[in-house]
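Collaborator request, handled under Task 6.
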Amino acid sequence: MVTTEKATEVLQGPYEIEGGFVHLRAGRCPECGAVFCPARAVCDGCGHRGLDEILLAPRGTTYTFTTVHQSTPDFRTPYHLAYVDFDEHVRVMLPTAGEETPRIGAAVEIVLGPGPRLVDGEPEVGPHALMVGTPATETSGGNG
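Structure tokens returned to the collaborator:
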């Protein structure tokens, strides 16, 4: 869980802390209802300008994942990236938290933590997907 002190340091990021949970910021088109994360200025679905800012639920489900073994020197490897489906009908790619290999269909909670990206030699703190439940379906995972 995120502490209040930590939360006040990061409120300007692509997420907000509400009720002790991390919510990613997204945009919803007021014309067609399409949701985008990160938010954008123009809807890809209908071309409407000016999307409404929304906060995604703090939990989602792992759609799929991959394990990155090679990258630039700005990233520690290996690390996992997961596509997470949210109830708001949007899929977001996030690094995963913890050492456990992601599971397709697993419930995840969005948490803040150090990630694979290095800034001045230190891991950057940001949103990650942390597995919190049992997978909805037992399928092989990722291309790692």
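The cover message to the collaborator said: "Confidence is low (pLDDT under 50) at residues 1-12, 135-141. The chain has one domain: 13-131. Please let us know whether this matches your experimental observations."
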